[in-house]
Write a structure and sequence with these properties.
Bound molecules: copper (II) ion
Number of helices: 5
Structural class: mainly beta
Order of helices and strands: HEEEEEEHHEEHEEEEEEEEEEEEHE
Length: about 325
């Protein structure tokens, strides 16, 4: 009898340990069912080399975004927080660490095969690299006009921060299958990211049981070959994303904690500089007010709007390369 009791106690302890381990390793994770499409964008404010003729750009558009809790199964539809129009840049995909994204891409263009290739998060290269068979050795991982394509990404360890996503196939497809001309019309080697097919994924820290969500605004600014900033913002109070356009004037209330995500897109290197503010270089003890930005590199930092003393005013941000600044690569951060 004593032996049976002892075994039962041991089994009970093992069950409790197992359940605890499962809870620790899946901290409130969710699965994001996201559908994006692609469309043409007309206008004269497109990214890419200004010396190249660019009558038209391409952009990703949000179709739907449903978040399902992995433990309770509860679903939340946040599709209405996005403008549904195709945009440059594409929508911010904000998730928590240990979430999964199941992203279905539709091709809203008249031809070609478009894809989403992501940096920084985990995925199976055989299914979710967003590249052509000539690169991944398996298949063309892109959406043509007849068939959607679905990618699965996982925000595992070491994924917290911001990462770019972009097309990796449209240009090659046009090059190989369609036009028979060099992709250099876009100055790209692979995808059509230089003419607008790019966006960012933001992975929030989700390791603690209590999540401090004090950031009021996310400003995502892309430094493009056209010597312009292309911006999009996410208001954390309303959850609404808003396109900011070219070299935007962005506005915060003094003392608000806000977060900037700067990304390089295209082939040029830039230097991001913001007046009146210093920020901690993530993962270090160094304070910065300038950061060199290579293509497809992301730099994310938090500041108090108005600086340490939260002083209202107009603070310029710009590329610190003299010729880029002279070409107009600047905008205003207004603190009211
Ligand atoms: Cu620059």
């Amino acid at each position: 009898l004593k032996k049976t009791k002892l075994s039962l106690i041991i089994i009970a302890i093992l069950v409790v340990v197992a359940i605890t381990l499962i809870i620790i390793h899946t901290p409130f994770s969710s699965t994001h069912y996201i559908t994006l499409t692609t469309d043409y964008i007309e206008g004269d404010a497109l990214p890419g080399d200004p010396s190249t003729v660019r009558p038209i750009g391409l952009g990703y558009a949000m179709v739907s975004h449903v978040i399902q809790d992995n433990i309770t199964g509860e679903k939340i539809d946040i599709s209405d927080t996005y403008s549904r129009a195709a945009s440059i840049p594409g929508p911010i995909l904000k998730i928590n660490q240990y979430d999964t994204i199941q992203l279905t891409l539709q091709n809203g263009l008249e031809d070609g095969c478009v894809s989403v290739h992501v940096h920084g998060v985990e995925y199976d290269v055989n299914t979710s690299d967003g590249t052509l068979k000539s690169i991944n050795g398996v298949n063309d991982q892109c959406a043509n006009t007849l068939n959607n394509y679905t990618y699965t990404w996982y925000a595992g360890d070491n994924t917290v921060g911001a990462w770019p996503y972009h097309d990796h196939t449209y240009c090659d497809y046009i090059l190989e299958e369609k036009l028979g001309v060099s992709c250099k019309v876009f100055r790209g080697i692979t995808g059509a990211e230089e003419i607008g097919l790019y966006g960012a994924i933001i992975v929030e820290d989700n390791t603690g049981l209590i999540k401090s969500d004090t950031v009021k605004m996310d400003y995502v600014l892309y430094m493009a070959d056209s010597f312009q900033f292309h911006g999009i913002q996410l208001n954390h109070t309303s959850g609404i994303q808003t396109q900011l356009g070219i070299n935007p004037e962005i506005t915060s209330n003094e003392g608000d904690k806000v977060r900037f995500t700067i990304l390089g897109v295209g082939e040029q290197t830039h230097t991001f500089h913001l007046h009146g503010h210093k920020w901690l270089d993530p993962g270090t003890a160094h304070y910065l007010d300038t950061k060199v930005m290579a293509p497809m590199f992301a730099h994310q930092f938090e500041i108090t709007a108005g600086g340490e003393e939260a002083t209202s005013g107009k603070y310029q941000y710009h590329c610190h390369f003299t010729d880029h600044l002279a070409a107009g690569m600047a905008g205003i951060f207004t603190v009211i």
